[in-house]
């Protein structure tokens, strides 16, 4: 066979090339991935060892792919492990061979026997699970894990599974109380526990939607006209601004002036009416006589009406009474009816009220002065406490929150009419709730509350910029009870007077004989003592008061003198301790002496160096620590780059500046050029010298460190302040001692004068 001979020659060439030392010769095993798709969709992996083909392998005829696939599948079905080629495998000349993919360096095709192929997969194919019946699937739906157990879809699946249970259609439905179902014995404690899927029914309270209020425009106007007006209102961009005072006469005039050119007028509301647009609509319709056809957020549009020319001059007074009790035909709630009954007869209502009804009483329209008004009489029961406890105060504030507003106030003084109305209200209610008008200038809630407390005698529960709440108090007496108490007291007083008059009549009817000789002299009697007291009691009392004042003043001075002496002693002890610490620090500082052989600078050189230093931007600032080793090191760092250094100090006195300049000159070894006065502080100019050499060691052993210099500065400042306060104490002690000497001299003079008078 020509093909087999050609393949054998290629194999010999490949073996010869591998023996020559190429990279291919270093390989001992070549792995080839063979993926074949069989009927059972099994993936087979095989490998082979590079070896010379045998005679049986060479003489094999062309392979059939189908037969090879079937053979390989049947041979490897039960043995998934790799099978190496055995010598017995070459004894079948008629075995089918397979064409195996070869690497790029192999020139001819490669063929293997089916038994030489192996399955390299470690995991054998898993056996198929038996198919489940429909009944098993239906039962499994109840116990299998479901995602989203509380969802609607999962619950609907469970319901359908229960309906499709086997035998569910034939048997009658049985109602099982899952809450009473238990596992195990009934005597155990766990028997009464509920199962995990049993849940208690929760009462869900949904928020009710607010019923839409049917406006007057919807009742009166046609639907087509109303839609046209609303479409025009949505395009309006010019409005009347309604401020905090509400719908005043100015707002009404502006709306009516807008009606002269247009049938619609727009109003935009500020606080507080913008929070209750239903109430704002009622007020606008009441005061203008128009109809609100469109409302959006804090704006509303008013329609003047079809018969505006006829009705524009009609008054508002005929509609005010209807607004107090609501729109005609409107059903009032029990809260509104009770509030109107409570406020009936207290005064005129506030029509511009920005909160729900009932409308409160306008306190500004009540009389400022009530003739003969007096605060009510108050009496608390015996063994009672008129003050409120914290718990009582809290409960009363909670009660006042839900009550309607009784009065609306806008002035600070002259509130007798309001106080009289509050007393009348207190006969039916314990609490009076007063709102403060918005937008009224110069209102002071504190002054209002104090004035009402003075006029009514009530207890203030709450006061802020919106409300004032007054409680009538535990000692409050209603007018009827107060009248009864006053009548009873008058009757008791009349009885006492009658008894006293009858006692006097009985004493006058009895005659007592008295010897006149007994009344001839007053010596040693009570009348004599009273006469002496009347004559000389004032003088003796005046003298005693003066003596007591002198003694009290002397005692106060002596006590104050002892206190000041004690404070002075403490200050002196502190000064002594600070001086001891300062002396210890000063002993560590040994100032250097000036070198006798110093360089001499001419006046021209000094002037030149001074001008150079004035132009320098860099400088060395001297702080509160003064001259220490860090300052000298800074001088050396400056002199590294320039000949002149400028040191700025904030010391006030010129003598301290000169002392600092000489210290710097001595410690650094430089030459002092000049001392210049700046806008803030002084500038010390130092020249390093012509023979300057940079020192090897910057720190000076004779100077203080940075920490010690700060401590020394603090001690010096402390000693100065302590000495100042000690001087003040000494001055005060000296003044007190002089005053005490004067008091002693005055006492001596008073004692001598008293002895002379005696």
Automatic annotation (TrEMBL):
One of its GO terms (biological process) is mRNA processing. InterPro entries: CRS1/CFM2/CFM3, RNA-binding_CRM, YhbY-like_sf. The keyword Cytoplasm does not apply. The keyword Coiled coil applies. Residues 58-149, 163-189 are annotated as: Disordered. GO terms for molecular function: mRNA binding. Keywords: Chloroplast, Coiled coil, mRNA processing, mRNA splicing, Plastid, Repeat, Ribonucleoprotein, RNA-binding, Transit peptide. Residues 129-149 have a biased composition (Basic and acidic residues). Residues 540-574 form a coiled coil. Residues 58-72, 169-186 have a biased composition (Low complexity). GO terms for cellular component: chloroplast; ribonucleoprotein complex. It is found in: Plastid, Chloroplast. Residues 219-315, 386-483, 599-699 form the CRM domain. PANTHER family: CHLOROPLASTIC GROUP IIA INTRON SPLICING FACILITATOR CRS1, CHLOROPLASTIC, CRS1 / YHBY (CRM) DOMAIN-CONTAINING PROTEIN. This is CRM domain-containing protein.
């Amino acid at each position: 066979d020509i093909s087999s001979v050609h393949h054998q020659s290629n194999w010999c060439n490949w073996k010869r090339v591998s023996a020559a030392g190429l990279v291919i010769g270093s390989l001992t095993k070549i792995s080839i991935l063979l993926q074949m798709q069989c009927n059972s969709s099994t993936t087979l992996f095989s490998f082979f060892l590079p070896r010379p083909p045998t005679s049986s392998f060479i003489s094999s005829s062309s392979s059939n792919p189908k037969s090879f696939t079937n053979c390989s599948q049947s041979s490897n079905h039960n043995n998934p492990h790799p099978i190496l080629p055995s010598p017995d495998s070459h004894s079948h000349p008629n075995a089918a061979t397979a064409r195996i993919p070869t690497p790029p360096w192999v020139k001819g095709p490669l063929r293997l026997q089916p038994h030489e192929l192996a399955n390299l997969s470690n995991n054998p194919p898993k056996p198929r699970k038996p198919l489940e019946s429909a009944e098993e699937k239906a039962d499994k739906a109840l116990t299998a894990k479901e995602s989203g157990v509380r969802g609607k879809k999962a619950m609907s699946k469970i319901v359908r599974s229960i309906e499709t249970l086997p035998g569910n259609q034939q048997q009658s439905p049985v109602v099982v109380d899952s809450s009473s179902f238990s596992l195990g014995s009934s005597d155990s404690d766990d028997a009464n526990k509920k199962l995990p899927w049993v849940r208690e029914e929760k009462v869900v309270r949904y928020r009710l939607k607010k019923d839409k209020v049917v406006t007057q425009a919807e009742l009166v106007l046609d639907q087509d006209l109303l839609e046209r007006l609303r479409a025009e209102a949505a395009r309006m961009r010019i409005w009347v601004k309604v401020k905090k005072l509400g719908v005043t006469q100015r707002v009404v005039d502006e709306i009516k002036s807008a009606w002269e050119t247009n049938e619609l007028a727009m109003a935009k509301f500020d606080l507080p009416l913008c929070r209750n647009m239903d109430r704002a609509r009622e007020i606008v319709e009441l005061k203008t006589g128009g109809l609100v056809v469109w409302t959006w957020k804090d704006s509303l549009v008013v329609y003047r009406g079809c018969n505006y020319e006829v009705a524009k001059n009609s008054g508002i007074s005929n509609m005010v009474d209807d607004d107090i009790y609501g729109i005609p035909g409107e059903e009032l709630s029990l809260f509104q009816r009770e509030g109107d009954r409570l406020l009936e007869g207290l005064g005129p209502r506030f029509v511009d009220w920005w909160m729900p009804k009932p409308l409160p009483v306008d306190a500004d329209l009540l009389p400022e002065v009530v003739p003969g008004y007096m605060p009510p009489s108050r009496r608390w029961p015996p063994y009672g406490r008129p003050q409120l406890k914290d718990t009582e105060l809290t409960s009363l504030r909670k009660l006042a929150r839900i009550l309607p507003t009784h009065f609306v106030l806008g002035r600070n003084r002259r509130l007798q009419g309001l106080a009289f109305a509050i007393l009348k209200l207190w006969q039916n209610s314990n609490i009076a709730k007063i709102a403060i008008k918005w937008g009224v200038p110069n209102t002071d809630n504190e002054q209002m509350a104090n004035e009402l407390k003075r006029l009514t005698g009530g207890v203030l529960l709450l006061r802020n910029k919106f409300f004032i709440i007054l409680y009538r108090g535990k000692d409050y007496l209603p007018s009827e009870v107060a009248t009864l108490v006053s009548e009873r007291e008058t009757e008791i007083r009349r009885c006492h007077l009658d008894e006293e008059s009858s006692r006097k009549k009985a004493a006058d009817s009895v005659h007592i004989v008295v010897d006149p000789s007994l009344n001839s002299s007053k010596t040693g009697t009570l009348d004599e003592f009273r006469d002496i007291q009347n004559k000389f009691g004032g003088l003796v009392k005046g003298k005693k008061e003066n003596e007591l004042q002198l003694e009290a003043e002397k005692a106060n001075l002596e006590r104050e003198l002892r206190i000041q002496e004690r404070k002075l002693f403490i200050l002196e002890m502190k000064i002594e301790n600070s001086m001891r610490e300062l002396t210890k620090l000063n002993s560590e500082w040994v100032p250097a002496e000036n070198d006798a052989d110093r360089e001499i600078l001419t006046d021209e050189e000094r002037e030149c160096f001074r001008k150079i230093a004035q132009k320098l931007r860099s400088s060395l600032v001297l702080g509160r620590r003064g001259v220490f080793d860090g300052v000298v090191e800074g001088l050396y760092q400056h002199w590294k780059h320039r000949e002149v250094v400028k040191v700025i100090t904030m010391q006030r006195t010129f003598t301290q500046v000169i002392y600092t300049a000489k210290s710097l000159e001595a410690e650094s070894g430089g030459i002092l050029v000049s001392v210049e006065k700046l806008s803030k502080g002084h500038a010390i100019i130092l020249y390093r010298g012509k023979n300057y050499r940079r020192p090897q060691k910057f720190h000076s052993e004779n100077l203080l460190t940075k920490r010690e210099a700060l401590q020394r500065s603090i001690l010096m400042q402390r000693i100065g302040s302590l000495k100042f306060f000690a001087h003040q104490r000494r001055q005060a002690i000296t003044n007190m001692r002089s005053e005490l000497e004067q008091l002693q001299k005055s006492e001596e003079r008073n004692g001598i004068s008293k002895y002379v008078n005696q």
